[in-house]
From TrEMBL:
Residues 92-101 have a biased composition (Acidic residues). InterPro entries: UCP010256, Uncharacterised_CoxE. This is Unannotated protein. It comes from freshwater metagenome. Residues 91-120 are annotated as: Disordered. PANTHER family: BLL5662 PROTEIN-RELATED, BLR6139 PROTEIN.
Length: 487
């Protein structure tokens, strides 16, 4: 397949659109980085796809958590184009000369076997797929991925169907689970001696990685054809996903929650450094007269350079009171995890969780290296159900005040986590008022959008009247901004 080299002006237009989409996806791309990217691509031909991709990544991606978003946008904006990616027509030849082999026709010819895709029966194609996976022939796998999409995806121009549907249809016809079983069976039969459990596991992992690579090739092929049919901007908008720090806690998918768990560890280190620096460079203390005179003697006492006593910054004590009912459980877990991960910046952290009853869970976090294990114990062992297990903020706050109210001091900062949806029970807002009288600060963090506050059974305004601040914390980015104001 021949790849037409774009003109310089069209390339700049394409790169401009690419960077605009990266910014829309949440990646911070400065003007300087934009210019660096434009300069980088003048030295690397677009035909060298991997080098071109990593040159852009080196200039535009600064956070490992942003790599997946960059890769998705890159695949959309720099998809291969040509007749092979049109949705009309029938089977195309089984051409191996793609982006990686176009520069090496001998390698392409060696893997093709001289066959055309339109002449292959399903049985022949299955046999070629088996051999390509068995031998790890990447060029053949890419060619078979294109042919499989043409034969089995059923893609039609203008049809408003997502790529997931086409991917499902293609994979269902290939039956890769059965192919994987045959690969393992063949490997065992060809082995000179019975495979040990370790050898068998290594063999299986290797075949599985090849199957996963084939799936990625099929997914990329479908994406390229959709781009050719619908246009770059439309596909980029369809595939746009939030960055881990922008994922909504309350609506995160399973994969997004895994991304959040990975993103929270570097975030805790960054916040700990910021909080420590903030306290270290806090406001000055009283004038240190003796030190001032001593330093001024070297120049006769005039002019005087005032020296101050820097008070040792006091670390606040943190009380976290978190609603862990189903609607806000994910938000509570990540906030507890974040606060305990930076607990070294506070004199003490105590944690309380509630639904309609309340329980202190500080003990689960003491002496624990893996905070996720402590969070699991909170979810399974905490005594938080009083009657029916539906949120009752009023009763939970009353019990908290009776049991722990006397332990709140002027050094205590209280964080209350929840959506304040009280199921129309009594609010007992007087408890928050009394806590505010004794505590240093009281903050309420709500994972719901502000537009939903004080609607239905939400009474966040009633509680917020007695707090120093009520914050919307729907994602890690907003949570990070809040933690920075703690003092």
């Amino acid at each position: 397949m021949t790849i037409a080299e774009p003109s310089q002006s069209s390339m700049l237009d394409l790169l401009t659109g690419f960077i605009v989409e990266l910014r829309a996806a949440g990646l911070p791309v400065s003007l300087t980085e934009n210019l660096d990217a434009m300069n980088a691509i003048t030295h690397i031909p677009i035909e060298d796809r991997n080098a071109f991709k990593y040159a852009l990544a080196a200039t535009l991606v600064k956070n490992n958590a942003h790599w997946r978003a960059f890769e998705t946008v890159f695949e959309v904006y720099f998809s291969l184009r040509g007749p092979a990616y049109s949705l009309g027509g029938g089977d195309e030849p089984l051409d191996l000369a793609d982006d990686d082999t176009a520069a090496n026709p001998e390698a392409a010819g060696a893997g093709s076997g001289g066959g055309g895709g339109e002449a292959l029966t399903p049985e022949q194609m299955a046999e070629m797929l088996f051999k390509a996976l068995q031998q790890g022939d990447d060029a053949m796998l890419r060619a078979l991925a294109r042919q499989a999409v043409t034969r089995y995806a059923g893609m039609e121009p203008g049809r408003p169907v997502g790529g997931t549907y086409y991917l499902y249809r293609t994979l269902r016809n290939l039956d890769l689970d059965n192919v994987l079983e045959k690969l393992m069976s063949e490997a065992k039969d060809q082995a000179p001696a019975p495979l040990t459990p370790l050898e068998e596991r290594l063999e299986q992992d290797e075949f599985q990685s090849r199957v996963d690579k084939l799936k990625q090739e099929i997914e990329s092929e479908i994406r390229r054809r959709l781009v050719a049919d619908r246009g770059v901007e439309a596909m980029a908008k369809t595939l746009r996903k939030p960055l881990p720090e922008d994922v909504d806690f309350m609506h995160a998918s399973r994969d997004e929650l895994m991304g959040l768990r990975k993103a929270i560890y570097p975030l805790t280190r960054k916040l700990a450094v910021r909080l420590a620096r903030k306290r270290r460079h806090g406001r000055k203390g009283p004038l240190d007269f003796r030190n001032t005179v001593r330093h001024s003697l070297s120049y006769g006492g005039v002019p005087a350079d005032p020296k101050f006593r820097y008070p040792r910054p006091a670390k606040p004590e943190i009380f976290v009171i978190a609603d862990i009912s189903g609607s806000v459980a994910a938000f509570a877990r990540f906030t507890l995890q974040l606060v305990h991960a930076i607990s070294g910046q506070f004199s003490r952290v105590r944690s309380f969780v509630f639904i309609d009853g309340i329980d202190e869970v500080t003990r689960f976090f003491e002496g624990v290296e893996d905070i996720s294990h402590a969070i699991h114990r909170v979810n399974t062992e905490a005594d938080v159900v009083w009657v029916d297990g539906h949120s009752d903020y009023g009763h939970a706050f009353e019990v908290f005040w009776e049991k722990y109210g006397r332990e709140i001091s002027p050094k205590t900062t209280v964080l209350i986590l929840g959506d304040a949806r009280n199921n129309y029970h009594s609010s007992q807002a007087w408890v928050i008022k009394e806590i505010r009288k004794k505590a240093r600060h009281v903050y309420w963090l709500n994972p719901e959008p502000k537009a939903y506050w004080d609607t239905g059974d939400s009474i966040v305004g009633e509680y917020g009247a007695h707090c120093d601040g009520t914050y919307e914390c729907r994602n890690l980015r907003q949570l990070e901004k809040f933690v920075e104001v703690l003092e």
